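Researcher: Here's the sequence for the chain we discussed earlier.
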Amino acid sequence: MTRQIVVPAKEGPSKQRGAIAIMSAFLLSALLAFFVVTIDTGRLFYEKRQTQKLADLAALETALLYCRDQTLTESERRAIALEVLAPERNNFPGGDEDITVELGRVETQTAEDGSKSKTFVVDENGFGVRVTLNKVVTASIFALVRPGIPSTINLKPAGVAQACQPTASLSIRSSMASVDLSRSSLLNDQLGALLGNPLGVSVAGWNGLVSGTVNLRDLLDNLADTLGLPSGEYETAMTTSIPVDELLEAIADVAGEAGFADAATALDDIAAAVPGGVTDLTLRDLVVVQIGAPNTAFDTNLQAMQLVQGIIQNVAAASGTSPEIDENLLGLANVSIRTKILEPPILANTGNPAHAAEDPNGNDAIYVRTAQLRTFAAIDLPISGAALSALEGLINNPLLGTLSSALSTLSGASPPSSADDLCPLGITSPCTTESDVLDVKFIENPRLDILVQGGAGDARVTNHSCNSSGTERELNTSVRSSAAQVMAGEFGSTTDDAADNAFGDDEPDPAILPLIDIGSVRVRKTCVLLVACTTEYRRADGSWTTDAAQAERTAYSGGGIGARMTGNYLAGQGSLDYSNSSGDEFLPEISDVLSDDAYQSVYSNSISDGVEDSLLGLELVFYDPTTESTLATVSDAMGAAASTLTSTMNATINATLEPVVNALFDQIHESLGVSLAEVEVGGSMTCQSDKVELVM
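Model: Thanks. This is the structure I predict for it:
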């Protein structure tokens, strides 16, 4: 039987072409749809961008012209916007009814998460201008092929600009009114040591720097010539590095042109003393002007002295030096004082107080600060001569017998007088006894190390107010001093070792400075009769001698008395308010030279006062005996005797410390202008300027 196999016929070319055509039509439709969406998106984005640009231009020009003439009515402000949008200028396709011009103010809100947002509030007393445009555009090219799709949409971009913005400036200056010969010598020594070369500025030169001022804009013009920059490139001139000597010479030129000849001479002398290898500086290291501030912000005046202090402190901070100050300049003997700049100052800061008030610690803050430094002093305390005799008299005073008894109990030794009664009453045969006898020794001329670090302060703008015409203005600031850490004790075995430890990278940790060593010696007494006794003292080799000076002494067996202090002191914070209500000199315009009335002192009681009081009230420390005892019982066991002893010791120490502490804060710190209590902060403000910017 024959099996038939049926083979299916192959599809012809005509059927394959049909499937390809269907697939191609589908892909073409998808590609066309994608193309249309892309074209629509790009076209609408372009339309919105162009319309937004027109709204911004109209808002900027309207706000600027309104700032210059605040009598403009609503219709006149609208006419300005229409002129900007006219066909011959920017060719806005809409009609008059498509343009809205509003006057108001911009408010900033802070959310719970810290984020900020801005809103425009319509207000006829504001200086913000919002221009809103309405432009009708074709919604989509799909509308040409498919009915029912909206054919047009309305774009309503709004531009918000603000002019008549205030500009405020804070400045710090040295509180020195004048410089005498002794102050001149100290300034030459101290600032010269920080700079790295001796200075020889005359008394007249230093006084010229104190009284002289330098206009920032004039200085920037001079620097632009020196650096080969176009005129008016103020921000570039401020941020371009320049050698320190050239910067000082530029300041000298401006001071000389302003009529401060003595200041110019002093600046030239300092420039000539700048050593090689010093790191270049920028003017922005000393003075800050907010980016985008109007040119009027650069029209401020700076004290020549503060510029010199700031430049030298920047050099010292970069080099990390800690030079020693000549003790003879301070009228002190046996004192070593060194300083190190940790952070240089900011001498002046200018910007928009409205922005600064939104976040006084933010990027737009207007603040000035003093330098932060570390000061080390090693002082030889003269506990000798009459002072030593007075203290020894306290120990031996019969009225203070409880002191010897208390020390004997704590040390396990006997009072010195106990060696006179070693044989029991009635025993006449020879007897020999041994005991440890108390031996109190005062450390002659101990070296007390003091370290003061921190204590810098700042002042920053927190608020401002201006009336509608800008004739009445007020600037509010907060001022604060950071914590000053004060340590006293013994930082090292020698002065140089102590200074290295004080200025090292590790956290300083002074040891207790011993002042009184409560020790003991081994005494052997042999008596034949009650009135015939010999006393011997054991040497280090175990032999005995009748010479007490050769006796082996166990130091601190009964403990000791020393001095040490570690604490943080904060001057606190307050506020300074500047107002022109009493006269324009109290809050002048930005371009005016700040008079003495424009400066205010920060604190009547400074952080220095708190540190001085603490150092001059240095408390003594009772520390552990080498024999087993309880430290907590020392002061209680001594009672009134301990109180008398510590009072006498404190009086002796304070008599030495007082001139040193005064030198530290009243001379050294004031010369550097490092504490807000020793400088003055000045304010100036212009309520309205031609600066205009988009704010939303």
